[in-house]
Amino acid sequence: MSSILVLNGPNLNLLGTRQPEVYGTTTLADIENLCADWAQSEGCSVTFEQSNHEGVLIDHIHAARGEHQGIILNAGAYTHTSIALMDAIASVELPAIELHLSNVHAREAFRHKSYISKVAVGLISGFGAHGYVLALEAMKQHVSH
Ligand code: CA2
Q1: Which one from 68, 78, 100, 115 is the annotated catalytic residue?
Q2: Which CATH number covers residue 98?
Q3: What is residue 18's predicted lDDT score, i.e. its pLDDT?
Q4: N or C: which end of the chain has fewer CB within 10 A?
């Protein structure tokens, strides 16, 4: 059975409570439930984590080695700044999909740069909460080939 880590970065715990015009009204708990429902219907295992701390996110990435076949990463604003997260993804040699709720390329220029893209197998951006299901589908396909 394939096992996938879904990892969420800073401020995503606030989803559904602030800035609904940008990020929608779906909470992170709702997204976790969407992922759990997908996992059950597909016969996959999904582990869902969130942290506001760069080092904790790195620890989750390191711990994924030997536990999961792939990582789906919404690194939040660390996407645009963190060489440390990029290095962590490269070091574990697991496929990673970069995920964003919003279309980062339709937003401010500082969101157009991504350190995660350099080490990701692909990018899903702009489909809101449904992007998590799209990323899970893509990762399932990717690890089965
Ligand atoms: O679109 C995405 O998923 C982002 O990763 C979200 C990040 C942002 O910095 C990235 O550029 C794109 C921000 C997450 C903040 O989430 C909030 C949720 C509710 C209220 C305020 C922030």
Answers
A1: 100
A2: 3.40.50.9100
A3: 83
A4: C
Domain of residue 127 covers 3-144
Report which residue type is found at 90.
A
**Residue 23 appears among annotated catalytic residues:** yes
Q: What is the pLDDT of residue 26?
A: 95
Instruction: Report the distance separating Cα 131 and Cα 118, nearest Å.
Output: 20
Which residue's alpha carbon is nearest to atom 6 within ligand 1? 76
- Point out the residues of the chain with pLDDT beneath 70: none
Q: Report the pLDDT value the prediction gives residue 108, as an integer from 0 to 100.
A: 97
Q: 72 near 132, Cβ under 8 Å? A: yes
CA dihedral 16, 14, 138, 79 (to 10 degrees): 140
Residue 21 to residues 10, 18, 34, 110, Cα–Cα distance (Å): 19, 9, 21, 20
Does the Cβ of 14 fall within 6 Å of ligand 1?
yes
| Beta-ladder partners of 99 | 124
Regarding the beta carbon of 142 and ligand 1, being less than 6 Å apart is answered no
The total number of structural domains that make up the chain: 1
